[in-house]
Design goal:
With about 230 residues, this protein is an alpha+beta fold. α1 (about 55-75) crosses α2. It has helices at about 55-75, 80-100, 160-170; strands spanning about 10-20, 20-30, 40-50, 50, 110-115, 115-120, 125-130, 135-140, 145-150, 180, 185, 210-215, 220-225. Mean pLDDT is about 70; it is low at about 1-5 and about 190-230. The chain has a six-stranded antiparallel beta sheet, with helices on one face. Strands 9-8-13 form a three-stranded antiparallel beta sheet, with no helix packed on it. It has two domains: about 5-155 and about 195-225, PPM-type phosphatase domain (Phosphatase 2c, domain 1, 4-Layer Sandwich); about 155-190, no CATH class. The protein is globular. The longest helix is centred in the middle third of the chain and has 22 residues, at about 80-100. Helices cover about 25% and strands about 35% of the residues.
């Protein structure tokens, strides 16, 4: 559990090669979670599963944590609202990039990224997920030595009926917001996942943020898929 005495900066960023192109990014930040020295300390873990190119996942890797620190500073605490605002600011920033680059680089509109974030701060675990990456808690069973996998995040995929219903409610005038093709549901007939920062400029923001239990004591592995990151 983070405390002022344990606020030692740790920063790691990684990329993963996919389809001969480094589309995926991940990062771990264990330090002050605000711009002020007196701000809360904690650990931030992000996994960004890029699609169609590396631009979106790299942008998230460079900007999301900085936005989170800014909003934490403004509110003087960590909260689900801080994380939600950081997601929104990152999305708006990337859409500005798309707008500027569109005339010279129209393919920029065809890239996107899933985004899965875990934040440990003040004894609480926050999970924020956009699209179909998954956060899993591994809990050891002392009697058998087995590890039980407990899913912590909800997924945003057009194959899930509740997601399709939410899309219809957000876009009541668009009869093609979800289309069944070859027995598989797709957003606008193009993609299954609801891409963050938005592939084909489909502006849909479905971010599930879960404030999980008070971590006492703080002994667990948090596995973030598709990339897998674990920490104690």
């Amino acid at each position: 559990m983070a405390s002022r005495d344990l606020c030692i900066p740790l920063r790691k960023k990684h990329g993963r090669l996919a389809n001969n192109l480094l589309e995926d990014q991940s990062q771990i930040e264990s330090s002050n979670l605000s711009l002020h020295e007196s701000g809360p300390c904690g650990t931030f873990v992000g996994v960004y599963d890029g699609h169609g190119g590396p631009e979106t996942s790299r942008f998230i890797n460079d900007h999301l944590f900085q936005h989170l620190k800014r909003f934490t500073s403004e509110q003087q605490s960590m909260s689900a609202d801080v994380i939600r605002k950081a997601f929104q600011a990152t999305e708006e920033g990337f859409l500005s990039v798309v707008t500027r680059q569109w005339p010279m680089k129209p393919q920029i509109a065809a890239v996107g990224s899933c985004c899965l974030v875990g934040v440990v701060c003040g004894g609480f675990l926050y999970i924020a997920n956009f699209d179909d990456s998954r956060a899993v808690l591994g809990r050891a069973v002392k009697a058998t030595g087995e590890v039980l996998a407990i899913q912590l995040s909800s997924e945003h995929n057009a194959c899930i009926e509740s997601v399709r219903q939410e899309l219809h409610s957000l876009h009541p005038d668009d009869s093609n917001i979800v289309v069944l093709k070859h027995n598989v549901w797709h957003v606008k007939g193009l993609i299954q996942v609801i891409i963050l920062l938005h592939k084909y400029l489909i502006v849909v923001l479905l971010v599930g943020i879960h404030v999980l239990w008070h971590l006492l004591p703080f002994y667990f592995h948090l596995l973030l898929f598709d990339n897998i990151i674990s920490f104690l």
